[in-house]
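Q: Hi! First time doing this. I have a protein sequence and I read that you can turn it into a structure. Is that right? Here it is:
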Amino acid sequence: MSTLLKGRIRHSVCAWPYESIPLDTFCKGAKEIGLESIDLLYPHQFETAKQFGLTCAMVASVSDAWNIAKGWNRVEHHDDLITYYQYLIDETAKAGFPSVVCFSGNREGLDDGQGIENCAMGLQRLLPYAEKKKVNIVMELLNSKVDHPDYQCDHTHWGVALSKRIGSERFSLLYDIYHMQLMEGDIIRTIRDNHTYFSHYHTGGAPGRNEINDSQELYYPAIMKAIYETGYKGFVAQEFIPTKTDKLSSLKEAVLICDI
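A: Yes, that's right. Below is the predicted 3D structure, encoded as structure tokens:
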């Protein structure tokens, strides 16, 4: 299944849609396709990825205590979140990986402006530790329309406002193309206008979050070209849910679509 890729886009893939495949088998298959990274691994999985010469470009942070709905926009969460994220930062730094994902949490009636202030308050306490360890904290933009009802960081302008409020090189946004297509569309213009705030990208077919081929509405070669033209040097990670029995063949197809 080995593929010669062009090298303009650095390819990764999120682990969770492939959980039915043993991680070592999945890593072997990803490496054969030409991927450099597996996204959203946990510390106990790091060594398996390393055995196949893979990095983890974005470390996972969802746990039994902390999830997408319960995040940094609540001041009462900050002390415990800082303890948890310091552990993740330590493990990420020891592995030599660059970034840990984070989430705003749900609104639950919280004003968007206050949500920004609360997130900034907590993250500004954490970021000196991240800076010392040379690890990035990256908040993911997610849709609140279908998959994550009431999630607060659900529009680019909100995430950019938070980034400006924090003002740290160690804080940035994960621009999820699928999620933002559902919320606001205008993907290429948004990337061109805001790329300095985006340190990572995820894919997915819209509207169904499945394969990114011609079964859905986004044209990924043009999106990848726009990302490349911004001078982006980071990773693009596939995060669609395969519908085919052979999930690795779906992954290979997606990587080739994005390999402009």
